[in-house]
Amino acid sequence: MGDERLAACARTWSSSRGRVGPRRTGTGARARLTCKELLDRVNTALHEPIGGIDPADAALVAIIAAGDLGLVLDRKTRRANKQRIQELTKLSGPIGPALQKSIQAAAIGEV
User: Fold this and answer.
1) What is the Cα Rg of the chain in Å?
2) What global pTM score does this model have?
């Protein structure tokens, strides 16, 4: 995972946390660590043998893919790992497909 994706993730995390929790400015060490941890977990889930993947990490990838979170799982990576993402989605249970249906319904105004 590139440094630019880590920096973008940290900036996004910091600014979004400022609205919910304590006000944050810049990209602190905690934001960078959180983003690095997230990117590492996704990368591991995409490349380790399927039998060794924690179901929570499989669900994490399924949710990120369903939510189309490009800062974490960009288009190129999604395309290159399409089959693997489908396997992880199956492993994660109903959360990925349910979230994807909900997002699609919201996008067309059904929700």
Assistant:
1) 15
2) 0.70
Per residue of the chain (111 residues), give pLDDT as tens: 456 666 666 566 555 444 444 445 555 666 666 888 888 999 999 999 999 999 999 999 999 998 888 888 889 999 999 999 999 999 988 888 888 888 888 888 876
Per residue in 5-34, is it b (16+ CB within 10 Å) or e — as a string? bbebbbbbbbeebeeeeeebeebeeebbeb
Determine the Cα–Cα distance for residues 89 and 62; give it in Å rounded to an integer: 5
**In angstroms, rounded to a whole number, what is the distance separating the alpha carbons of residues 57 and 54?**
5
Cβ neighbours of residue 72 closer than 8 Å, sequence gap 6 or more:
5, 9, 38, 39, 42, 64
The residue to which tokens 């288009």 are assigned: 75
Contact (CB, 8 A) for 8 and 72? no
